[in-house]
Amino acid sequence: MARFLINSRRRDLPDWSAPELAFTGLIRRRAQLPLHQALPGYAPTPLRDLPGLAAELGLGRLLVKDESGRFGIEAFKGLGASFAMYVVVRERWFEATGRQLRPEEFADPRVRAILRPVTFTAATDGNHGRAVAWTARQLGQPAVIFMPQDTAPARIGHIEREGAQVRLVAGTFDDCVAACAAAAAAEGWQVIADTAYRGYLEIPGFIMTGYSTIFVELTAQLDTVPDVLLLPVGVGGLAAAGAVHCVQRHGAARPRLVCVEPEDSACFLDSLEIGDGEPHAARGRQQSVMAGLNCGVPSLLAWPVVRDAVDVFLAVEDRWAEKAMRAHHRHGVTSGESGAATLAGLLALLQAPELAPARDHLGLGPHTSVLVINTEGATDPQNWARVTAAAEGMP
Ligand SMILES: Cc1ncc(COP(=O)(O)O)c(C=O)c1O
Fold first, then answer.
1. Is the pLDDT of residue 394 over 80?
2. How far is CA 127 from the centre of its chain?
3. 240 in the same domain as 263
4. Residue range of the domain that includes 199
């Protein structure tokens, strides 16, 4: 059964003035853009209009922001890792030289020659680790990436091909976060985590700031503001970046925001159901095929932002992700399991009888325009081929 929660904590204008939420100010100032524009291979990702799928689904319009080609690493994650690692390098450069590092100097070999070597490390279900390894390779620095031991071999291979060392951990993504933090403390490595936890709050803010480039690009690409925007949720970083952008730009008139999680690791929905305003561990086993969303604990920085800005939370079973991968494929979009999560949420909203109250709350129908984000391409090509070749079953 899919689940939903209509968020009674949503505010038209949430208060994000707490000092630890300073990243919301960076997003407002678009602090990450000069770096991204200086990176080799940067180009806005396409916004695709899918009139055929919109008609099939009985919607006015369906738009897909397609991140599957971002920087050639098949997911949006390079936006976050690159900006966070730039800030780290910039600080080290200032300490060494007393001079500001310009964005175009980020990967300059002359900068590398002056800086002390640094080993970057991260925990990942795939895409974030690949993004950290990709950035570290451009900087000529080593990276050590911690992954759950049941990760698809293709995803491990992508990271190793960036020259990083992969360490497999018996357990979940959250066990990898702990193993990464412990190893970094012992070895003096630089952690680049996409999730904020007690004692580690700064870098995830830069990562979320990096993600906000997606929404800056959308502002230029959209001719009208969509009625509904679906955002995928693992630790909540991307959803927080989207929510901040929408609140800052549109205030109370923002699109209705919907967060989509796997039923098996719905840490935001589960936390809101508990209802004390605090983040809690997910009730599920974190075994979803939506590997990038298999996160058992909300990021401490993303939590208050998402909690106060989002209209509806959904938790969907894996079969919706597989249906969404096939629907994307039929309409020319390559989308992996996690990448398809927002379309999965939309399909469930429109087709699962138990979600009818959420559908009504959002006003979904023939006059509604909906925006989803395809956050990932076929990062596990074998499973993608299996899923997209399968016949469509009953919903
Ligand atoms: C493809 C994909 N989509 C969505 C997400 C969710 O992002 P976040 O963990 O910031 O909520 C991830 C996270 O790794 C991902 O890899």
1. no
2. 9
3. yes
4. 78-203
3-class SS string, 84-112: HHHHHHHHHHHHHHCCCCCHHHCCCHHHH
Residues 166, 216 within the same domain? no
The catalytically annotated residue of 65, 66, 125, 194 is 125
Whether 249 is in a domain gets the answer yes
Mutation choice for ligand 1 from 27, 77, 337, CB with most ligand atoms inside 8 A: 77
| 323 is annotated as an active-site residue | no
pLDDT in tens, 340-350: 999 999 999 99
What pLDDT digit, counting tens, does each position of 12-65 carry?
999 999 999 999 999 999 999 999 999 999 999 999 999 999 999 999 999 999
Hey, what amino acid is at 59? L
Selecting among 65, 77, 194, 323, the annotated active-site residue is 77
In a 13 Å sphere around the CA of 169, the CA atoms on its Cβ side amount to 22
Q: What is the pLDDT of residue 395?
A: 42
Determine which helix (DSSP H) or strand (DSSP E) holds 153, and give its type and residue range.
helix 153-161
Tokens of 369: 């325009």
DSSP 181-217: HHHHHHHT-EE--SS-BTTB-HHHHHHHHHHTHHHHH
Instruction: Return the closest-CA partner of residue 241 out of 47, 39, 51, 16.
Output: 16
Query: For the chain, how many structural domains are there in total?
Result: 2
Q: What is the pLDDT of residues 247-297, one digit of tens each?
A: 999 999 999 999 999 999 999 999 999 999 999 999 999 999 999 999 999
- Tell me whether residue 77 is one of the annotated catalytic residues: yes
Q: Which of 203, 234, 267 is the last residue of a domain?
A: 203
pLDDT grade for 393, boundaries at 50, 70 and 90: low
Place of tokens 């989509």: 260
Percentage of residues of the chain with pLDDT beyond 70: 99
| Spatial contact of 392 and 323, defined as CB atoms under 8 Å apart | yes
**Atom from ligand 1 closest to the CA of residue 295:** 9
Residue 191, both tokens: 């952690």
